[in-house]
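fyi for ur records
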Amino acid sequence: MLGKSNAGAMRGEEPHLTKLAPNWSLEDVARHAVDFWLTTEDLPRPGNRITIDGDGAIHLAYTATNDTEAADLYGEFRKILNHVGLANHHVLHKNFYMGMNVPVAGVAHQAGTCRFGTDPATSVLDINCKAHEVDNLYVADTSFFPSIGAVNPALTAIANGIRVGEHIAERLGASTAEVRAPAPRMAPGHSASAIIR
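which gave:
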């Protein structure tokens, strides 16, 4: 479960709903809705890529790889909801499932634009996320991911950022202990000089 629907989002994501229900009723639908977020992994394809032409224009080549999996997941989710009794609601005796698919233009977690590996001929970054051709350039965001996965990438990106940071610290001669040493904690109301012995 993630967030809560609202009439504005419904109207913006699915304009055809305004034909099914007047604008005023979308607020009622949103208020009584139970929201779930379903996501599947869009697997990498060699042809899915972003390129820049000689004039600097950006081009996106993209074909989805998870349409069937997403439809299957949605179908299984409906079965589960029906099994727990939503099909026989004590008021409606029916269920209504409304899907709001996020198109590629609504992407929130870009990934895969800087492949990493050991061969400069097939990758941009080395295994420590350093550019093969630029000694002081590191890319530690989700660009190095082979795919975004089917979950929020924040914790993986943070873990990789720590890993890359430790590698950079070692290159600069700092020890891992120095990098990870926490700041000293002080009791409330005491100055640093009062607790240092």
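The longest strand covers residues 49-52. thats all i got for now
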